[in-house]
Design goal:
This protein is 65% helix and 0% strand. By secondary structure, it is an all-alpha fold. 28% of the residues are buried.
């Protein structure tokens, strides 16, 4: 029996933001969908607006698998995961081990074709940077949604995430911030009028 896809389905049971009160709980599956859509947008901006050729399909597929290790590890809160280099390195090792364990549950004929997406080994540095920016932008949007519903608990995360995105100095991410992020604070009626 091959449990790979059944295990992947469990992303919907892995909560995010475990250290914070949420008005609308988010799971890893929801975050992954958001992040992949943003990653695709950033790639298309890179290709069509900023003349920086990237492989959108590869980036999006890596986005699909970027947090699957959390099926086995749970979601480690960002302040803990990135507290210091030693913790960051140890967690990276745990993620790699979890990904390897997940790959062992895949059918042999597809395991090696999935591996580059799970391990993000087939991306250029620029593609990897776009994927990281998409992850951060998805995090920023979650903060906006929580603050819009009156949850002030996310204001600190909003400020630090916005700062981290700007520090990347990535044209596509900056363009997204300047031209798209504001609309995430609008309600459906306001969005429909645009």
């Amino acid at each position: 029996m091959y449990n790979f896809n059944a295990l992947l389905e469990r992303m919907k049971y892995i909560p995010r933001w475990s250290l914070m009160r949420q008005n609308s709980p988010e799971d890893v599956s929801q975050h992954t969908t958001s992040m992949m859509l943003i990653a695709h947008t950033l790639c298309e901006l890179a290709n069509n607006r900023f003349s920086h050729p990237v492989r959108s399909e590869k980036v999006v597929l890596c986005g699909l698998y970027h947090d699957v290790s959390e099926i086995l590890t749970g979601d480690m809160p960002t302040p803990v995961k990135y507290n210091n280099d030693k913790l960051k390195s140890a967690y990276k090792e745990i993620e790699t081990h979890a990904n390897e364990r997940l790959l062992e549950t895949a059918r042999p004929e597809i395991k090696e074709s999935i591996r580059p997406y799970m391990m993000q080994t087939d991306l250029t540095d620029y593609e990897r940077k776009l994927l990281k920016a998409a992850d951060k932008i998805s995090r920023l949007i979650k903060c906006i949604e929580e603050m819009r519903s009156g949850n002030k608990e996310f204001s600190g995360a909003y400020i630090s995430t916005l700062s981290a995105i700007k520090e990347m100095k990535l044209a596509e991410a900056d363009w997204f911030l300047d031209n798209m992020v504001e609309s995430f604070s609008l309600c459906l009626d306001e969005l429909a009028k645009i």
